[in-house]
Known about the structure:
Shape: globular
Domain HTH cro/C1-type: 3-48
CATH class of the largest domain: Mainly Alpha
Number of strands: 0
CATH superfamily of the largest domain: lambda repressor-like DNA-binding domains
Pfam family, one: HTH_3
Organism: Sinorhizobium americanum
Largest sheet: none
Mean pLDDT: 81
GO molecular function: DNA binding
Distance between the termini: 49 Å
Order of helices and strands: HHHHHHH
Protein name: Transcriptional regulator, Cro/CI family
Number of domains: 2
Strand content: under 5%
Amino acid sequence: MDMTQAALGEAIGVTFQQVQKYEKGTNRVGASRLQQIADVLEVPVSHFFEALPGGAENGAGVAGARSVLNPELTEFVSSDQGMALIRSFSRIKDDKVRARLINLVKALAEQDRS
Length: 114
């Protein structure tokens, strides 16, 4: 992982200052952004949790984190369709477009319940 903050920032569509804030913990890294970073660095998301107590090096890692997540959410993000949706959604930069898409999905889900 020999990459500058500027190069990583450019690859994920943020400034190098934003990458610094992620590294320092000043700004929260969302799940979709973390997936983008992992994709650019060509590492699994669990790589970022290895040094934490109970992390991947201790056998817990992402599997340990999954135990506290909603089972439906875990199933969704573990599926090919879920990951495709997450990756595609994370590439949408316009907040208004994201909001419209969320409303569309909610409406479709509500319609599907009927």
